[in-house]
Design goal:
alpha/beta, 19 helices, Rossmann fold, Domain 2, N(10)-formyltetrahydrofolate synthetase, Formyltetrahydrofolate synthetase, domain 3, globular, 25 strands
Length: 558
């Protein structure tokens, strides 16, 4: 029998009206702002009214380094949320919104898969409630106001060669990475070199995801450094007087979106910074609200634990006062084989030796997560072709690392397939064994923070950075930004900055190409290796297979 596609399964879902989903969390109907029948925003007033309640338990789902074989991190997040509800716990999930870039590129959507999905799948992966459009608009309003300020006499004395604020759009478009604007004569302003990043890499996205309320949002937007004067004094968004209008554009986008899983359990889907170039977590507002309304909150961090979990703990938890009670690390037998050197087309054949060889990658992630003082459970996301011997090899290996692995069948069975995992995770979360602390102190010099992550998480020997980068970091320290955490922009495919190096390499170095100050978001972006803040489309983009069928339904999204 042919498997149903994710989109077919999602289309057959029996959805409840979103007001009913809100009721399960105690959100009154008049505090839900509906977008159709199956999605709604939760009002700021309601969020404010519950902020003194005690917090539920926070469970973070992360993964090994992604491989083309697929890991299923969001799928596991959804499956675990459903599993917790199945065993009688009051649980909610918090995931990120999908960017159009990967949807039409190669990574696909962000709603889970199989029988562990969040619905409505099509809307979530397309325009949803318009949050990303609002972020794009607010970002580009600031861009327009900067150029306009310069055009009308440049009262602030901005050095046109030192405008740091680029433009954004939510699409993979390599042609826009590096461009010249304002050609065509006096009426169009002064030509300068600039470029576009993808919306999910925008500092506005990071700010929306870290702000606690509208006042905090406006303060952070105002603190964005957009340019420098000739004597290198910073110019802020508030100097351009853009912060008020940007906040107005983002007012609705600040409110978390509530949707449901296939099993009608509540899911907050809000915010979506890229994990390899930004901090890769859903919004603080959504996570904190969920913790006030549910006893267990399952959230995810982007890509492998070396990026996603590290940033979740060092940036999001530090800034929001959160602490995970348990971490679930997703792995697949197929990905272990790939890390063990098997080619994608040969993954169907049993190969226990390759599984064992590939487990080193998993082992390093287990050790890294434990170094934050948090207990780790490995979820083996089951694929139909996995053999018992291969699964056992992973379980035996995880035991040698002082952790435990549990086989999960949520893709095929929904919440029923994660009951064992849910039971164990709830036990660990309730036991209070987590002793969470971030990896580095606020007062550590910026370059040492970069070195700490490179050496302790990536297991590199050294960080390579030229004098320009080191001096820039020292200047920011002198300007009062030394307390900020660092956000590493690095390939997700490897512990190194070389995407082809799988497994658990040592003896490598981390080259830092550029550093960018996100003063509003409150971190320093450290760009390593060849990472792009504006991705391109692959040779055969997913968009080629997406369209409407004869019934007017979307086909080809995954």
């Amino acid at each position: 029998m042919a498997h149903k596609t994710d989109i077919e399964i999602a289309r057959e879902a029996t959805k409840k009206p979103i007001q009913e989903i809100g009721q399960t969390l105690g959100i009154p109907g008049d505090h839900l702002l509906p977008f159709g029948h199956d999605k709604a925003k939760v009002s700021a007033d309601f969020i404010d009214s519950v902020k003194d309640r005690p917090d539920g338990k926070l469970i973070l789902v992360t993964a090994i380094n992604p491989t083309p074989a697929g890991e299923g991190k969001t799928t596991t997040t959804v499956g675990l949320g459903d599993g917790l509800n199945r065993i009688g716990k009051k649980a909610a999930i918090c995931i990120r919104e999908a960017s159009l870039g990967p949807c039409f590129g190669m990574k696909g959507g962000a709603a889970g898969g199989g029988y562990a999905q969040v619905v409505p799948m099509e809307e979530m992966n397309l325009h949803f409630t318009g949050d990303f459009h609002a972020i794009t608009a607010a970002h580009n309003l600031l861009s327009a106001m900067i150029d306009n300020h310069i055009y009308w006499g440049n009262e602030l004395g901005i050095d046109e060669r030192r405008v740091a604020w680029r433009r954004v759009m939510d699409m993979n478009d390599r042609a826009l990475r590096d461009i010249v604007t304002s050609l065509g004569g006096v009426a169009n302003g002064f030509p300068r070199q600039t470029g576009f990043d993808i919306t999910v890499a925008s500092e506005v996205m990071a700010i929306l995801c870290l702000a606690t309320d509208l006042a905090d949002l406006q303060r952070r937007l105002g603190a964005i450094i957009v340019a420098y004067t000739r004597d290198k004094q910073p110019i802020y968004a508030r100097d351009i007087k853009a912060d008020g209008a940007m906040t107005v554009l983002l007012r609705d986008a600040m409110q978390p979106n509530l949707v449901q899983t296939l099993e009608n359990n509540p899911a907050f889907v809000h915010g979506g910074p890229f994990a390899n170039i930004a901090h890769g977590c859903n919004s603080v507002v959504a996570t904190q609200t969920a913790l006030k309304l549910a006893d267990y909150v399952v959230t995810e961090a982007g890509f492998g634990a070396d990026l996603g979990a590290e940033k979740f703990m060092n940036i999001k938890c530090r800034k929001a006062g959160l602490a995970p009670d348990c971490v679930v690390l997703v792995a697949t037998v197929r990905a272990m084989k790939m890390n063990g050197g098997v080619a994608k087309e040969d993954l169907g054949a049993e190969n226990v030796a390759a599984v064992e060889d590939g487990c080193a990658n998993l082992g390093r992630h287990i050790g890294n997560v434990k170094s934050f003082g948090v207990p780790v459970v490995v979820a083996i996301n089951h694929f139909a072709g996995d053999t018992e011997a291969e699964v056992k090899a992973v379980m035996d290996y995880v035991e040698t690392q002082g952790s435990e692995a549990i086989l999960c069948k949520h893709w095929a069975e929904g919440g029923k397939g994660t009951e064992t995992l849910a039971t164990r995770v709830a036990e660990i979360a309730d036991s209070g064994v987590s002793q969470f602390s971030p990896l580095y102190r606020d007062d550590m010099p910026l370059f040492e923070k970069i070195e700490t992550i490179a050496k302790r998480i990536y297991r590199a020997d050294e960080v390579l950075a030229d004098a320009k980068v080191r001096n820039q970091l020292k200047e920011w320290e002198a300007a009062g930004y030394g307390e900020l955490p660092v956000c590493m922009a690095k390939t997700q495919y490897s512990f190194t900055t070389d995407p082809s190096r799988r497994g658990a390499p040592t003896g490598h170095s981390v080259p830092v190409r550029e550093v960018r100050l996100s003063a509003g978001a409150g971190f320093i972006v450290v760009i390593c290796g060849e990472i792009m803040t504006m991705p391109g489309l692959p040779r055969v983009p997913s968009a080629e297979a997406i369209g409407l069928n004869d019934l007017g339904q979307v086909e080809g999204l995954f």
